[in-house]
Structure formats: C-alpha cells, structure tokens
Amino acid sequence: MSTAKKSILLIDDEPIILVPLFHFLLRKGFDVVSTNSPVAALSLIRPDKFDVVITDFNMRPVTGAEIIGRLRESDFSGKIMLISAHRGMYADTEKNLQIDAFFGKPFDLSAVYEKIREWTE
C-alpha cells in the first residue's frame, strides 16, 4: 500500500458484522469510519473523503441502494463494495448500481481485505 493511509467508510446496521470488520481493517492499517446508522452515513458522503465505501444492502430507513445512489450523485470516485446476506434478491440492483465488488454474508475477512488492498495499492 502507498504511504498515504487509505480511508474506508463502513456502513452496516448489524453490530455483529460492523464491529469485527471495523477492527480488522484498522489492524490492517486503514483509516476507518464506521456507522450502524444509514441515515448518519448520508451525512458523511463527500466525493473525495473516502477511498472505499463498504455498505450493507438491507437497512432501514435508508437502504444500501440509496446510499450508493447518493455516492454516485456526489461524483464519488472511490470503490464501492456491497455486502449482503441475500445476493440473489439484489442481482438486478447490483448491476444498476455499478458496484465494484459484492461479498455475501458471512464473508471471509481476508477476502474483503485482499479486494481493498487490490484497489488501494
């Protein structure tokens, strides 16, 4: 990874997913901002604030699709990773959202890290 610390926004309303992933990515040397509130996540969106955004899909009252849509509207230039337990339900949505990667829950933390590392080196 380059000398500049890469930043990640992590959004998931399930602490059982959010907390371990947050700590794992911190230990790997990333600057990580996490929230379990999709509403709060909307206030964090800036075009160049994060290198990677990782978001769950099925959240309320704001869905991952809405968050990704807002990122796209803001001219976000980073990578977007969608995580969800129900890939089949969202296959068409994934294509329309133009995400960069999908990981189904439960996922391998090392595989998520390898994809982020690939994007940020």
What does this molecule look like?
The longest helix is centred in the first third of the chain and has 13 residues, at 15-27. This protein has a single domain (7-120), classed as 3-Layer(aba) Sandwich (Rossmann fold), CATH 3.40.50.2300. The protein has helices at residues 15-27, 38-44, 64-73, 91-97, 109-120, and strands at 7-11, 31-35, 52-56, 79-84, 101-104. The mean pLDDT is 90. Strands 2-1-3-4-5 form a five-stranded parallel beta sheet, with helices on both faces. Strand 1, helix 1 (15-27) and strand 2 form a beta-alpha-beta unit. Helix content is 40%, strand content 21%. It contains five helices and five strands. With 121 residues, it is α/β, with parallel strands linked by helices.
Q: Gist?
A:
By secondary structure, the protein is α/β, with parallel strands linked by helices.
What structural keywords apply?
21% strand, alpha/beta, 5 helices, Rossmann fold, 5-stranded parallel β-sheet, 121 residues, 40% helix
